[in-house]
TrEMBL record:
One Pfam family here: Glycos_transf_1
Protein name: Glycogen synthase
GO BP terms in the entry: glycogen biosynthetic process
HAMAP family assigned: Glycogen_synth
Keyword Metal-binding tagged: no
Binding site for ADP-alpha-D-glucose: K17
């Protein structure tokens, strides 16, 4: 039996992307299709979607969706159905980013309200067995299903936590505007420390909670990682599932990647040298045979970028070079730019994000640095594994689940795929960099490390099956 699932999120690749959430939401429909799951994605009607909705069919109208007029447009996301919430007063802001607007509470409550309407029969032409809400921007949808569903039977629901640090917390003053009964403002509803918590509401109301790796599912039950929600998550641990993200081999494949001057495979790793030279050219680095590290990341405390900035002199002194692509905290941006000025030809920095350049870095650098203090899943280490760009990661969340440390036992057994370290500190990071450079000086062992990562299957095949099994188990419950 085919199940019909509505996946609601604030972004999806390739239409609109600010981070890994978009990659996951964009890849899920194809990952689930082989398992009998028909997935329809619901997105806000940003200006970036204008081309995608040209000629789209209007399938529903809301005269008053939390105070604004809105339409539901039906089109396609690749081979799969796409619904777009066309509400210009909320989303038609061409000169602004997706988030951090004063009325984000209304914008994403409206998205969630529309999703709940769809998942409870408000649009007869679009029926769903299950609603899958991603992160705080969609997490109110299960709460609407629970407290104020549409006219039909409410679908089952799943809330996925991609990063529990982002919660969507708002002042109590917004509650009367949400269209919820007063009973919803309670400890087992949307109330959160006297205000309204969107992610909290979704975790409370959903039939199941998933995170994007098994280790992160355990970590967020701990006060060090749960960001104030650890008690709720622990109380619902029987409904908590950790399913590691996958990557889309149609997008991330070194054998077919158009962003690489020299596509290659695990059987032809020698071709990577052309990509390495291209990275050196783009970043103004001195050509050389020493290890070339890369960073493709938000430059934030969470990502451990402060610790990395302290270790750059040691990285260069040990014979390494660095090509960094990212943006974030102004102080960290300045620290990396300063390091590049201090080490011309050894450190190159590009502030911002460039999708094609991120592919080139994975295909040309020798190792990718991911010293995150917490990392729900992480995708860059999966891209690194697929591209033979050896991941150097902190032992947390999905990083711990996906990278096998190159200790002597793992090297002897031929299973190592990268490097892990426990404490996100200068001492631990620099010690690990020393390990990396020592193994890089042994070409045969380094090559084996690359091949091990490239031969592992990090596609969505396994994770897609796990999601499908979870969906079916929920729908079959009475």
């Amino acid at each position: 039996m085919t199940l019909s699932v509505l996946s609601v999120a604030s972004e999806a690749y390739p239409l609109v992307k600010t981070g890994g959430l978009a990659d996951v939401v964009g890849a899920l429909p194809a990952a689930l299709a082989p398992h009998g799951i028909a997935t329809t994605t619901l997105l806000p009607g940003y200006p970036a979607l204008a081309k995608a909705v040209e000629g789209a069919k209007v399938v529903h109208r809301w005269p008053d969706l939390l105070g604004v007029e809105a339409r539901l447009l039906a089109t396609r996301l690749g081979e799969h159905p796409l619904l777009v919430l066309d509400a210009p007063k909320l989303f038609a802001r061409p000169d602004a980013g997706l988030y951090d607007h004063p009325d984000d509470w209304r914008r994403f409550a409206a998205l969630s309200r529309a999703a709940a309407d769809l998942a409870s029969g408000a649009v007869p032409s679009h029926r769903f067995d299950l609603l899958h809400a991603h992160d705080w921007q969609a997490a109110m949808a299960p709460a609407y299903l629970r407290f104020a569903p549409g006219s039909g039977p409410a679908a089952k629901s799943v809330t996925t936590v991609h990063n529990i640090a982002f919660q969507g917390r708002f002042d109590v003053a917004i509650f009367p505007e949400l269209g919820l009964p007063q009973t919803a403002f309670s400890v087992d509803g949307v109330e959160y420390y006297g205000g309204v918590g969107y992610l909290k509401a979704g975790l409370e109301a959903a039939d199941a909670i998933t995170t994007v790796s098994p280790t992160y599912a355990q970590e967020i039950r701990d006060g060090r990682f749960g960001m104030g929600l650890e008690g709720l998550v622990s109380a619902r641990r029987d409904r908590l599932y950790g399913i590691v993200n996958g990557i889309d081999p149609a997008v991330w494949n070194p054998e077919t990647d158009a962003a690489l001057p020299a596509p290659y495979s695990a059987r032809a790793l020698g071709r990577r040298i052309r990509n390495k030279r291209a990275v050196e050219s783009v970043f103004g680095l001195e050509p050389g045979d020493g290890p070339l590290f890369t960073v493709v990341s938000r430059l934030t405390w969470q990502k451990g970028m402060d610790v990395l900035s302290w270790a750059l002199d040691e990285l260069v002194a040990g014979g390494g070079r660095l090509a960094l692509l990212g943006s974030g905290d102004a102080a960290l941006e300045a620290a990396f730019v300063s390091a590049a000025a201090r080490h011309p030809g050894r450190i190159g920095v590009r502030i911002g994000y460039d999708e094609a350049l991120s592919h080139l870095l994975q295909g040309g650098a020798d190792a990718i640095l991911i010293p995150s203090r917490f990392e729900p899943c992480g995708l860059t280490q999966l891209y690194g594994l697929a591209y033979g760009c050896v991941p150097v990661v902190a032992r947390t969340g999905g990083l711990a689940d996906t990278v096998i440390d190159a200790n002597e036992a793992a090297l002897a057994a031929g299973v190592a795929t990268g490097f892990q370290f426990g404490d996100v500190s200068w001492d631990a990071l620099t010690a690990t960099l020393t390990r990396v450079m020592a193994l890089y000086a042994q070409p045969e062992r380094w090559c084996q490390l690359q091949k091990n990562g490239m031969r592992a299957d990090w596609s969505w095949a396994t994770s897609g099956a796990r999601y499908a099994n979870l969906y079916r188990s929920l729908v079959e419950q009475t």
